[in-house]
Design brief:
- This protein has 390 residues and is of the alpha/beta class.
- The protein has 3 domains: 1-82 and 276-306, Rossmann fold (3-Layer(aba) Sandwich); 84-269, NAD(P)-binding Rossmann-like Domain (Rossmann fold), CATH 3.40.50.720; 307-390, ACT domain (Alpha-Beta Plaits), CATH 3.30.70.260.
- Helix content is 31%, strand content 21%.
- It has helices at residues 65-70, 83-99, 101-109, 118-125, 146-158, 172-177, 188-194, 214-217, 237-246, 278-298, 330-339, 369-376, and strands at 2-6, 22-25, 33-36, 52-55, 74-76, 138-142, 162-166, 183-184, 197-200, 224-228, 249-254, 267-269, 318-325, 345-353, 356-363, 381-387.
- The strands form 3 sheets. The chain has a 7-stranded parallel β-sheet with strand order 8-7-6-9-10-11-12, with helices on both faces. The chain has a 5-stranded parallel β-sheet with strand order 2-1-3-4-5. The protein has a 4-stranded antiparallel β-sheet with strand order 14-15-13-16, with helices on one face.
- Helix 2 (83-99) packs across helix 5 (146-158) and helix 11 packs antiparallel against helix 12.
- The radius of gyration is 25 Å and the shape is elongated.
- The chain starts with a strand and ends with a strand.
- The mean pLDDT is 95.
Length: 390
């Protein structure tokens, strides 16, 4: 029986992936895995039995990734599961950035109580909210992953925009999904120089924090609009507000309100609604549950943010999975610990990702506890797991 703790309200769709071998509870004190959405985990102490954390969503800022890696806890996320929901909201934000729809709605609410005069007041005041159409304008897309690709295609095919995108790490899958009408730029600067509107779909890291700053804004056309539906910290708020005040920027639309941005002219703050659809929540929960299941049952690792991709099926015999630091001589040291116990290694797989690695050994007989203890004692080994045969 595997024990799963839920830190947030998680869709019941997880039960389509987790059968009666799983005990699922909010109160579980010593879980094998945790399913989480937005709950903050940085101050949590993890029990020794915890093997995995599944984030029902893409962002993992609420999870202490480095600490999890050191403790041999595999962290999963669900990239692409909420892509359609976010992309739809980005398109809505794009329209609001051009037409000042939000400002017009706010103004219309002030006419309450004017009775029969409302119609005349609307006709008299609507000119202050005039804005350009999207057709024929250029949208720049920085980051062409699951969300960025959907936005690019929708803007090109549905809105008749010229779309130019940049992503130095674009996957083959994303590249194939892009419309042939999308121009792929050679650099971010090329995108910025052409864009009437630019939308960012990049992860928040130490390198990307503050990407939307005065230096970047200076490369844009005068009067351009910026959309930030990735993370609020991508933007330097002071630089954005200064550019809006000077007229360098036409608008700033974000799904991440901050005190500095709220109630500012030309700023539209949406209350983090990107993934707030029932379809998105179900997709994320289903994917996270499946990732957790596959890792707990056979050791397969898919969509981990701290350990390498490792696609495995049910072992024919016995399987030893070792999570360890990516340092020299680990493979020979680990395999020697098994061989010394007279256990034949039929197949060995090693994968690495930056500082972390995983070694899998398919063996013909159940490893002895002494062999497992020898592996666990190797400096740099983080966790050892064994999977039984048929």
């Amino acid at each position: 029986m595997y024990k799963i703790q839920t830190l947030n309200a998680i869709s019941d769709v997880i039960h389509t992936q987790l059968n009666d071998q799983y005990a699922i509870s909010k109160e579980e004190a010593a879980p094998d895995a945790i399913l989480v959405r937005s709950a903050a985990m940085h101050e949590m102490e993890f029990n020794p039995e915890l093997k995995a954390i599944g984030r029902a969503g893409a962002g993992v800022n609420n999870i202490p990734i480095d600490r999890c890696s050191k403790e041999g806890i595999v962290v999963f996320n669900t990239p692409g599961a909420n892509a359609n929901a976010v992309a739809e909201l980005v398109i809505a934000g794009l329209l609001m950035s051009g037409r000042n729809i939000a400002g017009g709605i706010d103004w219309a609410r002030t006419l309450k109580g004017q009775g029969a005069e409302v119609g005349k007041l609307v006709e008299k005041g609507k000119s202050q909210f005039v804005g350009p159409e999207m057709r024929g304008k250029t949208l720049g897309v920085i980051g062409l992953g699951a969300i960025g690709a959907l936005v690019a295609n929708a803007a090109s095919r549905g809105l008749g925009m010229n779309v130019v995108g940049y992503d130095p790490f674009i996957s083959v899958e994303s590249a194939w999904s892009l419309s042939t009408t999308i121009h792929r730029a050679a650099s971010a600067d090329e995108v910025l120089s052409q864009a009437d509107y630019v939308t960012f779909h990049i992860p928040l890291t130490d390198k990307t924090r503050g990407t939307i700053n005065a230096e970047m804004i200076a490369k844009l056309k005068d009067g351009a609009g910026i959309l930030n539906f990735s993370r609020g910290e991508l933007a330097n708020s002071a630089d954005v507000l200064a550019a809006l005040e000077s007229g360098k920027l036409r608008s700033y639309v974000t799904d991440f309100p901050s005190d500095e941005m709220l109630c500012q002219d030309k700023v539209v703050c949406i209350p983090h609604l990107g993934a707030s659809t029932p379809e998105s929540e179900e997709n994320c929960a289903r994917m996270a549950a499946a990732e957790i299941r596959d890792y707990l049952e056979v050791g397969s690792i898919h969509n981990s943010v701290n350990f390498p991709e490792l696609q495995l099926t049910q072992p024919e015999g016995f399987r030893i999975l070792v999570l360890h630091e990516n340092i020299p001589n680990m493979i020979s040291t680990i395999s020697a610990a098994v061989s010394q116990e007279g256990i034949n290694i039929e197949n060995l797989i090693n994968k690495s990702r930056k500082d972390m690695a995983v070694t899998v050994m398919e063996v013909e007989s159940m490893p002895t506890q002494a062999a497992l203890d020898d592996i666990a004692a190797v400096k740099g080994v983080l966790r050892v797991r064994v999977f039984g045969g048929k």
